[in-house]
Design goal:
The chain is mainly alpha-helical and 65 residues long. It has a single domain, classed as Orthogonal Bundle (Protein Yjbj, Chain: A). Helix content is 77%, strand content 0%. It has 5 helices and no strands. The protein has helices spanning 3-8, 10-20, 26-32, 36-47, 51-64. The protein is globular.
Amino acid sequence: MNWDTIEGNWKKFKGNVREQWGKLTDDDIARINGNREQLEGMIQERYGVAKDKAKKQIDDWMSRH
């Protein structure tokens, strides 16, 4: 699956995102609105991880969906 699919179906995927990254608030999810860079930034901020680790987490999550 590519990110364009997720972005286009954000309403469908935001529940899965919330399950994967439980520290993200509803406001965070709304602010992300399907934007991968926003998601990376929020993961970095909430979990205190480096950008490359956030990207890897997203890639791993995408491979499972």
